[in-house]
Design goal:
Blueprint (H helix, E strand, L loop, with lengths): L4 H27 L16 H5 L8 H32 L5 H30 L8 H11 L1 H11 L3 H21 L5
């Protein structure tokens, strides 16, 4: 009832503008770095902290400033999300039906967990002191904020769908039919 089409459009525009500004600032700051070390990154993608390690002097401080700005924006987003959830939960607790309350909690809590997990691990990765060599912690933090949240999102949003639940229940039956026709056998 509170979220109309105009507010939804404004929220989407704010997300796109914030993401665009952050991307432009990171790109500009990263391109301003003077590189003098071997241009080998011991990482699975060109993560900004890993690129900052290749800097010759303190010219990577612009990247740190952008990371601080982005973290403030992310913190503002998290606070906004947290306030929204406080409002949602206070409204849900007034629902007389325990079944109605549990449906909302089972929908909202996984989303809140994934957002918190993403923001926490990204902030840990970007505010961790820069060391000369890549560590297992660097790789683990990068995996935590780049791979795990997008992997969990389809499960969070689609497994609540009744059609998806029905399709998953029929999956063993379909797999059995496939193996019978093709002559394959799964153990």
């Amino acid at each position: 009832l509170i979220m109309d089409a105009r507010k939804c459009k404004s929220a989407v525009i704010a997300v796109w503008v914030n993401g665009g500004i952050s991307g432009i600032l990171y790109t500009a700051a990263t391109c301003s770095i003077t590189f003098c070390r071997a241009r080998i990154i011991h990482h699975f993608f060109c993560d900004v902290p890993q690129i900052a390690k290749l800097s010759c002097s303190n010219d990577y401080l612009a990247v740190i400033g952008v990371a601080a700005f982005t973290s403030l924006a992310a913190s503002a987003c998290f606070i906004s999300i947290a306030l929204s959830y406080i409002h949602i939960f206070s409204t849900v607790l007034r629902i007389p039906s325990a079944e109605g309350q549990s449906k909302v909690f089972f929908t909202c809590l996984p989303h809140l967990f994934v957002v918190s997990f993403f923001l926490f691990t990204a902030m840990c990765a970007y505010f961790k002191p820069i060391s000369d060599s890549a560590t297992a912690l660097d790789l683990m933090l990068s995996v935590c904020y780049t791979i795990i949240p997008p992997t969990l999102n389809p499960m969070i949003y689609s497994l609540r769908n009744e059609a998806m639940k029905g399709a998953l229940k029929n999956l063993p039956t379909l797999a059995g039919r496939f193996t019978e026709k093709k002559g394959f056998m799964f153990c």
